[in-house]
């Protein structure tokens, strides 16, 4: 049986290779061995490296001869490491990754077979864009799309048992120059934030910085279940989540899974997974059990945002690849099991300058403290003002089961700052005579603030956007999402407020205010307008939903509502103004994401109807047959059937009828004409989702009624507890 198969497996043994001394290789010996970064290659001259970096800094293209030098070096490296093919790797708007492979194999002038990657092959590819969702942005005759090499992210080798392929990170744009991917706007948002933040630092008296970049570390939550159960659940295969399933008696009530002993098979997976990530230059650092049974987490050391975004994509695919070797499947869906803790991606986000200063790290001088507080105020203002676009950026069918499902960060965008910062802000706002160096509340002139924040490690796990000591943690991001879009919107929102803050500071300082005074006025101004977006309480509570409504905060509960933001010029103008998206690119994304939502739900509905017919009802009928036999037999024997048999029979019959009718109606609904996508999506999110929730409830009741021997689908018990 499936259960026997799952429980009799042993942890997979894999061995880290030995070094020349016959010792098991240490991580420092294999870290990054599958990556190629032109900056560290010994086969590229220092002049070439310098020229390329300079071109990158100045935002212009690199010279052909420099690209040729890199192409030659990377080909030698990749081919000598066993690569036969290379591919342009990109992130289309579906949120996943795409790749088109070509062989290094080529002919030289004499017609002899050689290995080769030309500069132009490295720099540009031309996948057929018409096969990717384009949101109606282009007619098929202009379906050409280009992938262009992103030099800021390292190339890497992906290995299967049969060989290796060189992956070249690229951006994907249409023939007409529209971005068709997640990376391009992310890069634009990073480039926009840099100068605005640098200028802010200067105005805040920190004149040493010449550039600022975004830093990010994405914690990844996931479920692992045995492969046998996965393939026996069509809903998992088709939709990534169980569309129904009765809860087991013990789920997560005992709270004993979080940080508990990692099961052997899972630990074996984690070890191999970490090994692979380290070889790929992905700084995986932390691994542990998460809240729900069968749920786990990995977290890397933070890096530059664009690299972190690429890395997270590689994390997701590598995770799947390695888990399968261990006969397990990774579930990245935000809510694979109703009623059980969902999975998110905590996007840890901050900014650093070229001297290594973290803009969200309070310092030891009064000015650095004020600069820090002003930075926090700017971010909170951005969060408040651009709450809807940020909510849009984390929307998706999967995340709808998490956000606002009263056991996850709500769909209300708010910030958690913790008591210390909150108190300081209140003091600044309320006490007009408050001076940066005065002793009321706390002395900002010492490193007291840094200490206080360090000690003040109170964690609020219920906030969608929490300050955690030296960074913000955007927790409402879904576990399956590409982090590129949420980061793009966040960067753009913060950029916009930085720009506004800069002109405010310039005006105030021009009027004779000192740097400190102007920062103080800035904090006061922004915290007054954005105070209502600060919430330090329990974000999962019903009280907060009511309180947020009283405060006038938006609460876009579902994906269709959230996506509508992209049809509201006022809401998205900051994205256009700061050069992140053209208006048409926003329209493209709106169409694609809305259509994607509809398709995902339709697939869920159809799968659900199928499973009801193929599994649930037949199981119920088997049970009825059994009951019929008993009831008949007893009658023949002259014994009246007991209440139980009759009751069970009637109950199963009634439930089957009920779910059958609902399924038939839903099926009919799917066949109707739905030309207005927004309306249809809204109908799905409200009416139809309510129907399928009812249907799932009936299926669960049947699952509880029907004896195990007749119930053929793996249960939560199997998927969550057996390995
Ligand atoms: P916790 O969430 O338990 O506090 P850590 O403090 O180690 O754990 O941080 C979690 C994640 O935040 C890690 O991926 C870490 O690298 C990342 N992180 C830490 N500092 C920064 C920063 N300045 N910018 C972006 N990410 C950061
Ligand atoms: Mg964390």
Main traits of this protein?
single chain, 723 residues, alpha+beta, Ubiquitin-like (UB roll), Creatine Kinase, Chain A, domain 2, Four Helix Bundle (Hemerythrin (Met), subunit A), 3 domains, 8-stranded antiparallel β-sheet, 7-stranded mixed β-sheet, 24 helices, 17 strands, binds adenosine-5'-diphosphate, binds magnesium ion, Gln_synth_cat_dom, GS_Type-3, Gln_synth_gly_rich_site, Glutamine synthetase III
Report the strand count. Answer: 17
Overall body shape: globular
CATH topology of the largest domain: Creatine Kinase, Chain A, domain 2
Helical percentage: 40-55%
Stretches with pLDDT under 50, minimum 5 residues: 432-442
How many domains in all?
Answer: 3
Rg result: 28 Å
Account of the protein in words:
This protein is α+β, with helices and mostly antiparallel strands and 723 residues long. It has 3 domains: 13-179, Glutamine synthetase, N-terminal domain (Ubiquitin-like (UB roll)); 189-581, Glutamine synthetase/guanido kinase, catalytic domain (Creatine Kinase, Chain A, domain 2, 2-Layer Sandwich), CATH 3.30.590; 596-721, Four Helix Bundle (Hemerythrin (Met), subunit A) (Up-down Bundle), CATH 1.20.120.1560. The chain is 48% helix and 14% strand. The strands form 3 sheets. Strands 10, 11, 12, 13, 14, 15, 16 and 17 form an 8-stranded antiparallel beta sheet that branches. Strands 1, 2, 3, 6, 7, 8 and 9 form a 7-stranded mixed beta sheet that branches. The protein has a two-stranded antiparallel sheet with strand order 4-5. A hairpin with a 5-residue loop joins β11 and β12 (295-300). The longest helix has 54 residues, at 583-636. The chain is globular, with a radius of gyration of 28 Å. The protein starts with a helix and ends with a helix. Bound molecules: adenosine-5'-diphosphate and magnesium ion. Residues 215-217, 219, 299-302, 348-350, 358, 468, 470-471 line the site of adenosine-5'-diphosphate.
């Amino acid at each position: 049986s499936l259960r026997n198969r799952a429980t009799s497996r042993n942890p997979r043994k894999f061995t880290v290779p030995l070094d020349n001394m016959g010792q098991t290789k240490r991580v420092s010996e294999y870290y990054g061995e599958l990556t190629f970064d032109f900056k560290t290659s010994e086969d590229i001259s220092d002049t070439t490296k310098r020229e390329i970096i300079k071109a990158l800094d100045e935002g212009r293209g690199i010279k052909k001869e420099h690209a040729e030098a890199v192409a030659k070096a990377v080909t030698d490296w990749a081919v000598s490491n066993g690569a036969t093919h290379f591919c342009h790797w990109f992130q289309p708007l579906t949120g996943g990754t795409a790749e088109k492979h070509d062989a290094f194999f080529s002919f030289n002038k004499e017609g002899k077979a050689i290995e080769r990657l030309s500069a132009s092959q490295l720099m540009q590819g031309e996948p057929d864009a018409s096969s990717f969702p384009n949101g109606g942005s282009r007619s098929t005759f202009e379906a050409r799309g280009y992938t262009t090499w992103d030099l800021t992210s390292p190339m890497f080798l992906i290995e299967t048992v049969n060989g290796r392929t060189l992956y070249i990170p690229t951006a994907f744009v249409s023939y007409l120059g529209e971005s068709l991917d997640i990376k391009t706007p992310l890069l634009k948002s990073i480039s926009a934030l840099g100068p605005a933040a640098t200028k802010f630092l200067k105005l805040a008296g920190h004149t040493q910085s010449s550039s600022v970049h975004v830093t990010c570390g994405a914690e990844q939550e996931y479920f692992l279940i045995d492969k046998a159960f996965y393939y026996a659940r069509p809903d998992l295969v088709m939709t990534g989540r169980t569309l129904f399933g009765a809860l087991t008696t013990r789920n997560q009530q005992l709270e004993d899974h979080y940080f508990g002993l990692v099961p052997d098979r899972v630990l074996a997976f984690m070890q191999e997974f970490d090994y692979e990530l380290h070889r790929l230059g992905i700084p995986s650092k932390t691994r542990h059990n998460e809240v729900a049974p069968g749920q786990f987490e990995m977290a890397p050391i933070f890096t530059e945002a664009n690299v972190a975004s690429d890395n997270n994509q590689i994390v997701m695919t590598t995770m799947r690849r390695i888990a399968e070797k261990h006969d397990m499947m990774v579930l990245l869906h935000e809510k694979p099991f109703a009623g059980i803790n969902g999975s998110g991606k905590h996007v840890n986000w901050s900014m650093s300058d070229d001297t290594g200063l973290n803009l969200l790290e309070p310092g030891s001088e009064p000015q650095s403290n004020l600069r820090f507080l002003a930075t926090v105020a700017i971010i909170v203002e951005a969060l408040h003002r651009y709450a809807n676009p940020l909510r849009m950026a984390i929307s998706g069918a999967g995340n709808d089961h998490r956000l606002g499902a009263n056991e996850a960060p709500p769909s209300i965008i708010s910030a958690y700052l913790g008591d210390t910062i909150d108190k300081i802000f209140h003091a600044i706002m309320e006490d007009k005579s408050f001076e940066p160096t005065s002793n009321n509340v706390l002395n900002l002139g010492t490193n007291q603030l840094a200490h206080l924040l360090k000690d003040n490690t109170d964690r609020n796990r219920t906030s969608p956007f929490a300050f955690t000591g030296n960074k913000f943690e955007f927790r409402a991001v879904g576990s399956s999402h590409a982090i590129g879009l949420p980061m793009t919107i966040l960067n753009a929102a913060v950029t916009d407020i930085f720009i506004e803050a800069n002109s405010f500071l310039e005006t105030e300082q021009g009027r004779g205010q000192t740097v400190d005074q102007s920062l103080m006025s800035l904090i006061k101004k922004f915290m007054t307008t954005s105070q209502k977006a600060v919430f330090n309480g329990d974000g999962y509570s019903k009280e907060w939903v009511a309180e947020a409504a009283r405060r006038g905060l938006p609460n876009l509960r579902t994906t269709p509502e959230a996506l509508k933001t992209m049809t509201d010029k006022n809401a998205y103008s900051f994205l256009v103004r700061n050069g992140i998206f053209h208006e048409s690119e926003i329209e493209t994304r709106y169409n694609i994401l809305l259509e994607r939502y509809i398709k995902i739900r339709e697939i869920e509905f159809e799968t659900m109807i199928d499973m009801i017919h193929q599994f649930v009802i037949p199981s119920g009928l088997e049970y009825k047959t059994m009951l019929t036999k008993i009831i008949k037999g007893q009658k023949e024997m002259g014994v009246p059937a007991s209440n139980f048999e009759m009751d069970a029979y009637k109950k199963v019959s009634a439930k089957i009828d009920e779910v059958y009718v609902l399924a038939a109606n839903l099926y009919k609904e799917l066949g109707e004409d739905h030309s207005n996508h927004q309306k249809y999506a809204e109908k799905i999110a409200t009416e139809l989702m309510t129907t399928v929730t009812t249907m799932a409830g009936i299926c669960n009741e049947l699952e509880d009624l029907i004896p195990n021997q007749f119930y053929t689908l793996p249960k939560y018990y199997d998927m969550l507890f057996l390995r």
